[in-house]
Every structure is written in C-alpha cells, then in structure tokens.
Amino acid sequence: MTRITRLQNISRREILKGTGIAATALAAPAILTRPVRRAAAAENVIRIMGVTTVALPDWSEFEKDTGLKVEFTPIDDAIGTFLHEVEANDAGERYDLFAAFSGPWKGLAGKDLLLQVDSSRLSNWGGVSQEVRTSPLIMGGEGALWSVPLVMNADSFAYFPSLVGAPPAPEPVSWSLIFDSDKTKGMIALDDSFFTLQHCAAYLKFNKLAEIGNPGNLSSSECETVANFLIERKKAGQFRTLWVTYDEQVSLLVNGEVAAETAWEPAAMEARNQGAAVEYAWTIEGYDKWMINAFIPKQAEQRGNLDQIYTALNWFLGGAYAANIAKLRGYVTPRSDLGVAYGKSAGLPAADVALIEDTVSKLQKKFSHELFWNSGWPDDIPAYEREMSRFKNA
Length: 394
Fold this sequence. Notes:
Elements: H1 23-26, E1 45-50, H2 60-66, E2 69-74, H3 79-87, E3 97-101, H4 105-110, H5 130-133, E4 148-159, H6 161-164, H7 176-179, E5 188-191, H8 195-206, H9 220-235, E6 239-243, H10 246-254, E7 260-263, H11 265-273, E8 279-280, E9 288-295, H12 300-303, H13 306-316, H14 319-329, H15 336-345, H16 350-367, H17 381-393
Parallel strand pairs: 1-2, 1-3, 5-6, 5-7
Antiparallel strand pairs: 3-9, 4-7, 4-8, 4-9
Helix pairs in contact: 8-9, 9-17, 10-11, 14-15, 15-16
C-alpha cells in the first residue's frame, strides 16, 4: 500500500492474502454493524479498529511483552468509512484504539470524539524525529498531540527500466515518465482516485510548470490547474488505463500491459515475486509520504483503561513492532532505529536484519525529500472529486 483514502469503500485486504492474518478477521465487513455498547474495558484486552496494513499476522510477541491480548477488527481504509464508524456508529464505545490515516483528527477532535495523547507517557517519543513530532498531520494548536504514527511510507510508481529507457532503482527517475513523456505514451496506468491529482501536482510544482502550494492539500483552483494538464496529456495519448484495486495494479505489471504505473510499493514487490522485472521508483521530484496513526477515543477516559492503551502504544513505538513491520510490509515506524537494534539483540537471521536496515535506510532518504506529506483528508474534497471526475470523463 500503500495507502488509499478515498470516499468509496476500496479495500486493501487483497494485499494481505497470504500474510497469515486470521481468516475470521479478514472476513469482517468493511462497514461494521453497531453492537450493544460496552460500558467497561475488557480485562487485559486491547480492542483495535484499524486498516489492516498495521496488523501483524501473529500478536504473540505483543502479548508476551505487554500481558495484553489484541482483538483487531479490520476496516476498509477509505477515510469516509472510518469517519462513519466513529461519528455515526459510536465506534469509541467498542474500541480502545483506532488506526487510520492521519487526516481526520481535526474533525474528530473538534467534535470531542478523541482524547489528546499525553506524550509524557510514551517512553520512546523523545527519539522520534522533530519533523514527525511536530507534523501538522498529528499536532493541533498549542502543541496538542492527537495521534501517534504507527507506520509510514513514501509512495511513487512502478516501472520497467527496459521499456521506459530509464535506469533501475535506486538511480532517481522523473515523474515525467508517468505524466509527460513520449517514451511512455500510451503505456501508463494511473490511480483511479483523486491522489492522481496530488502526484501530478508534485511533478508540476517541482518542475515549475504550474503555481502549486502544497501538493498534498490542493486548493480548488490548483485542482483545476492539475486536471487541465492531465486532460491535455490524456488527449495526447499519454495514458492507457486507470486502476482501482491492488490486484489490478499487479495484473497490469505481470501481464506487461503497461510500461509504468502509479502504484503501492507492495504491488511492485508482488509483481517482482511473479517474475516481472519491475522497479519501484526513487524519484527526482519527490514522494507521496503518508502516515497511519493511532487515535484514542474519548470514551476510553470513562472506561478507565488508559494504562493499558499507553502500554500498547509504547509497544508499537518499540523495536519488536518496528522490526516486524519492516519485514512484513517494507514500512517504517517513528522508531525504526529500535527495530534495527531489536533485530540484532534478538538474534534474528542476518538476512532479516539486513532487510530491516535496508528498509530504514531507504525511507530515511525518501522522507528527507522536500515533497510532500499527504494530508490524508484534503480540505477541499469536493474540488478533488469534481476535477478528478472531469479528467476521467474528458
């Protein structure tokens, strides 16, 4: 994934086929039914509602380290679905933590549906980078912390070096291969969601082809500008198709239907596993950088299990989770340095330690690029939807 935060319910569960997450969990509906409220916390149990990207196939190490059991309920990673569960279905009455993309905290905090996070109770918080600790994706006014990053990544695109005439990773390549290149004309697939607008905006901004402020949170006029460029390139024959699901991304690459496509990193990894000579781009212009965060529902205050919740959060900010998520997804946590140390001290195989180190090194380099952090929930959703629709219908 990487991630997809769109208004319709598009599931990321395809990514997790074969990762070992319990079948009963994967069978859970995307829109959850509303059970009877529970008034008290369950003893020694942390109930989490979240996108499956953050889940582990085996929680035994968490249980051993914390003395707590996990009940994880997966939910589609469309933010509209998450907001519906919290606001309309009172999910805070049933869950101790939410795990979702970073954007929604503003609306939920404004409606008194979240608790501020007390960073003094997070033992590893001091080692989190200044950029992350002060990010507007998690911080409100007057230093209020509203969520804790669990996993992060920097998305770009998948490409066949032999077909696009570009070097393999980690040699940087340009997003022009996707949006504006005669070498790839008619051989490009784009994300069907409005994130295509943000990817293109980053390309236009970096190359001074349009006046763009923050590619991760476009204004109405900026959305229109980007859509106009995309329509021009569409009429020039640049794009072959749009994809919606993870399986579609993989299939387009494995079947050789495209030379390059905007993609989630696990899709490129899976295509390689199936024999496609695909690279995942290190880019000149930058990346779609994102976080999936943990939120504490307001109701936890009355349930009296905040000690357990902070025990869980501290484990997520520790070395065992960082090591596991790096191996499983190729993602990092805010304390991935602890994952490297954990891998060595726990006696993990040398290949696993090297994989963790490579993941951390890769993301450190990609995160250091100027462009751009994805807001997860843009301020002007109607403009995004309108202009993406105009592009698709042109």
